[in-house]
Amino acid sequence: MVSEALSSWRDSRSTNLDALVGAHQAVTRGLPGRPSLTTELNHALIARLASELQGFSRDLHDQASDGFLTSLTVPDPGIRQILRARLEDGRKLDSGNANAGNLGNDFLRIGLRLWPNIHAAHPVRGVRWHDWVEWLNLARNGIAHNDPVKLGQASAAHPLTLATFRTARGVLNQFASGMDAVVETYLRGKTGVQPW
User: Which residues contact residue 2 at a Cβ distance below 8 angstroms, ignoring those fewer than 6 apart?
Assistant: First the structure.
């Protein structure tokens, strides 16, 4: 099984991204070589991809918190409610980007060392996922804050194009599935029950 967060990533969040890709294709009519027309659309695609990753990650953290604080692990519902609030209080995904550090810090709240577990489960792909998560947030910050230095750093690694967006999206699809599985395995090990 997969979490509701991953189902949403594959369904409604994917639909949001597809709508922007459709707008991009409507402007370019599918033809390459129109950078003056597509720069802002490319930026919108990359920023939206970062936004959807953050939403997915926050949703997964919410579900992981619920899976961690079950009636088996914490029988008293009042205490569960207090602990659930503490897991969300000051959560980086509510105020910052879904960069590798913020993801790691937030999932550590339930005791999960996210990136070491991802790297253990996916030694080669985990490094690639980490790199793309970091790149995406660098590009997003460059776009959102109109920061030419960050835009230059992001562009030097990968041009801010539709092709790069497609590559990043493919990598992040794998990452979302991998992260979902790592969180599910961790929760099942800690609670003894299937979390979703």
Answer: 177, 180, 184, 196
Tell me the backbone φ, ψ of residue 55, rounded to 5 degrees.
Answer: -60, -45
Q: Is residue 98 part of a domain?
A: yes
Where the chain has pLDDT below 70, the residues are: 30-36
pLDDT at residue number 36: 66
Greatest Cα-to-Cα distance within the chain, rounded to the nearest angstrom: 62
> How many domains does the chain divide into?
1
Give a yes or no: residue 71 inside a domain.
yes
Q: State the Cα–Cα distance between residues 169 and 172, nearest whole angstrom.
A: 5
Rg (CA), the chain: 18
Q: Which two tokens stand for residue 19?
A: 């709508």
pTM (two decimals) = 0.94
Which of 18, 1, 7 minimizes the C-alpha distance to 166? 18
**Domain coverage including residue 173:** 4-189
